[in-house]
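Action item from last week, closing it out:
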Amino acid sequence: MVEFTTEPFDLDGFPEHADAARRAAAEAGLTVAVGPFGTSAEGDAEQALAGVARLLRETLAAGASRISLQVSVLPEGAGAPSAGERPDSGAPAGPAGRSAQ
């Protein structure tokens, strides 16, 4: 799972840099969910890694001054955590083919 927010915040609209981040993750093949405090994207490990690189490049090019990013690797077969729940941060990273949901 990749979670991210972009700045500067715009309470009156959806900034271009936020849209660029969402679009980059989706075009990398990740399933994107926009929430009130950030955006999450899920996919396999290779999609997540490619998506992060693309997201950083395109979001900065669209005017972001800061990108906060968190990548979590969940055990095989585990679903995404419920709202407000975080995966165990002590979980070891798996091989490249492992799911990054």
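Closing note: The first strand starts at residue 2 and ends at 7.
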